[in-house]
Amino acid sequence: MNTSKNPFLIVIAFFSIYVIWGSTYLLNKIVVTELPPFMLASIRYLIAGILIFIIAKIIGLKLGITRIQLVNTTIAGFLFLSFGNGVVVWALRFVDSGFAALQISAQPLVVLLLMRFLEGKKIMLMSFIGVVLGVIGIFLLVSQQGLLTKDGSAIGMLMIFICMLSWGYGSLFVSKADLPANFFVNTGYQMVMGGFMLLIASVAFREPWSSPLEWSVPVQWSMIGLIIFGSIVAFTSFNFLLKTVSPEKVATSTYVNPIIAMFLGWYFLNEQITTQSIVAASILLSGVYFINTKKKMVMFSRFKKQKTA
Known about the structure:
Helix content: over 70%
Distance between the termini: 42 Å
Shape: globular
Number of strands: 0
Radius of gyration: 20 Å
Low-confidence stretches: 295-309
Structural class: mainly alpha
């Protein structure tokens, strides 16, 4: 059965990256208050990758891959997980979980611009409007005086932006790279390779390691949620969508994630939601319409030749 264009699977996959990933900001924030960032990320991805391989073996999936596929999964694991996510977790020590998710909501704009500059693709009129709205929203978000005065907030926001570039380029890379045909197996290799590189980073930065038995109960449950839902379920859905729909549509998950993250951060962690953040969120979220709408017009395109009878 060909599942690549199955509408039901596509809807479920989008639900996973929209809602589940929105909750991972809260879970990461809970864990990073107690555990070193690279340690927790490496444990999360290594365990998730091993579990994927075990499940794949049980259901009869082939785990063998070519050398180029191993290289590509390693590159993807670095762009998405080791750097793209590991550094975001590090930045959560300095910024609120809802704010981080809101800043990352500009990811579709980054993808569009990378597609323009790296692949020469023209920006459609509606997408161009989305870029303008995104720039305005991001400016309103990061210019809040209360945020800029917090210790480490500036470096946290800067590193999150660099992570957005890493995720954006990774999305373009994965959409064309030679990777394992099975999305589940592909995810497993990316998890293991990304987790291994994060382990090296944790050792290099001399992070203190501890036994899971020493963790608090909230941290233990949060880590379980990150491994099962945030890693195995959502990231498999992400890889599936990158091969099924266009990268800029996959990136629209970052429009929905902030709503989930801001609500959960406010409800469970008493994180402040300012009026300016709400305005910025409204402007950023409106961009999802302009990027996803089918009424796209080519921006700065050449005049089309009239059709002959």
